[in-house]
User: What shape does this take?
Amino acid sequence: MDQLRGKAAKLGEAARTKAPPAQVGPVILFTAGGVRFAVEAIQVQEIRESDQGAVTAKLKGTPPIDFALQAGLGKGILERLVVLKPGLCVLGVTGVERIAELPRAVPLPGVFQGQERQWYRGLLLFENEVVPLIRTEYWRHLPADEGRR
Amino acid sequence: MSDLSRFVVFPLGARHYAVESSRVSELLMPLQVFGFPHTTPSLEGVLVRRGTVIPVVSLPLAYGLGGPRRLYLVTCCTLGGRPETVAIPVSGECELLAGVCGEAAQPEQFITGTLHAEGRSFPLLDIDGIVAHCIQAQAAGSGEARQ
Assistant: This one.
């Protein structure tokens, strides 16, 4: 587990110097804990209802990560499952809203020095909103006993 | 008179402080602060100004100083050798004053000297030091997330 944590920490460190491109591809907007987040659509394998028995069976052994809980927003309501490629990481979220095409991305400002550097790849600027773009590499490497249920 | 002898004086809680005007890029009227989960202390979120994201560092919160929020002082500070632009909420009107610097009246954390201008004196705030101090506690640790 220490190795996984170390890997996640390295990803966060890399984020300090590696800025995201000004534009990213299509993103999927989802909500967790009352907050909107984004994940690159190319990183998502599928989105499912959380109560589908077939899905539960298929994903057996891969309990969903309570995204809201992990982001410090309290225990989340897991109504949707965002399955990240290649299928071994499942994010439990409240809702999946829509796909946004070609949003403008900016790096997370350097003064953000906490765990958010691992959580997010950058920030997406929409007309009246700033949405964190999650760093899928981090969430894939999250140790199995952290935030999963 | 060189730019270095001009200072922006601003209220923070019950006191007024001064910083070199060359450190201040602009003063903003209250804007929407966009919050998102993070664990860095004293950061409220970000402002978006002309397509640029500016983090909001709340010094009053860090020091228990209250007061109404009137303006954001946008300043460039150096953190870990890197320049970072941050917005600091201030609790009243700001002044641009010309004056001379002297020793601090008494040793005080994050105060580098005293500005004497127009018959008044203001403590000179070490912006780099205080911003670094505010955001460092628990940084990169497992601190409680905030929005």
In short: The interface with chain B takes residues 12, 33, 35, 71-73, 104, 106, 109-117, 119-120, 123, 125, 128-132 of chain A (CB under 8 Å).
